[in-house]
What we know:
Order of helices and strands of chain A: HHHHHHHHH
Largest interface: A-B, 40 and 41 residues
Number of strands of chain A: 0
Structural class of chain A: mainly alpha
Oligomer: homodimer
Number of helices of chain A: 9
Shape of chain A: elongated
Amino acid sequence: MYRQVKTTPRKRPRQTRSKETVESILGATARILVKHGFDGLTTNAVADQAGVSIGSLYQYFPNKQALVAALIERRLDDKNARTHAALAEVASAPFPVAVRTMIRLTIENYAAAPELSRVLIEQVPRVGRMARIAELHQGTLKLVAAVLQARKQELAVRDPDMAAFVLVASIEAIAQRAALFQPQRLSDPALIEETCTMVTRYLGVSDG
Amino acid sequence: MYRQVKTTPRKRPRQTRSKETVESILGATARILVKHGFDGLTTNAVADQAGVSIGSLYQYFPNKQALVAALIERRLDDKNARTHAALAEVASAPFPVAVRTMIRLTIENYAAAPELSRVLIEQVPRVGRMARIAELHQGTLKLVAAVLQARKQELAVRDPDMAAFVLVASIEAIAQRAALFQPQRLSDPALIEETCTMVTRYLGVSDG
DNA sequence: TGGCAATGTGAGTAATCGCTCGCATTCTAG
DNA sequence: CTAGAATGCGAGCGATTACTCACATTGCCA
Lengths: 208, 208
């Protein structure tokens, strides 16, 4: 689709002040991206918002795309860490508890910054990271499938891989759509309840 | 987020040749948008691809955004017509049949042009139509909720509105993710089977 | 056939914006 | 304290692209 651009940093910040500069730049990038999209994300606007000079910006980021790539990387790392921690936490919990926890955490994750999530995903065809996303996503599916496989005796599941795919897609979509389009549902306990109901009934476990 | 741009046509094609011109322009727009994204969608590139002059393009479209807006409109109209036809078709069918039909049609819809679907949705913050999308989406939710409400006696559903939200989000996400990320699943009968299983178990009806 | 409406053309303009580079300032270690 | 590394600055350049406008061609109807 797109020719890939280099997003490797030119220089890495060593001093405190330069680390703060980079943080300011990335913070400004996120704010502008959410508010104005990629079109409104001019490097001069970022530098202005961050309170640094345009030359400083280019010290640490080789081009505009690299700004966005850095945000994407951070977000993927964060999400990956959270997912693994959550899965580790519920690995041996009873299914109803595990299901509820995963759903709750997924909703919380999207509720935190729905617009930023959305707009960053949209930049992927432009700045890269599709392979990383696919890899992390596959990783999550494998973990979920492994959990389903290990406890297949207690579940009404035919194919753990397919079940993992269907469930992950559904839970993520419910969380994302609520966050983006129906934020009032985020504070309605029924959102988690109904999502749990759907999952537990599908798995054939009673809704603890 | 964005300042809205005018996307009203400057002139409407009357003769066959001008209608063909407009079709060529929109066809080229779709192809370039899918292949290169909005960045690569220059009006000169569209005119080249369509085999028309840049001046002709501006005869019918006041600006670049209007090209994309026209594609979005078409897609929304198409999807809306399909959804309503499908819902009318299954309104009185037994639930297992109705569920299977809706899932199959949703998957087929996304399977037809997954990349174009994705990239058009992403242009909405840029060219408008969010209100229209929300309206159509609400319409679909209301229709589904009405069906669930009308047959609540036979379903294990607590709140038809919430159930409609959860189901529509899930089915659409499964279809979209399969189409975009795991196209091999599109030809696997288990995809429809498992999705049907999830829905019918959630609704508390037997999986005809 | 002729006149007017419909349609098509594309060179060129003005604005925007990504990015550079020469210079200035601050920090750190010997 | 000094020298060199680290960091910051911003005017300005060159490339790109959305769009115009004066002119040309085709279609249709009386």
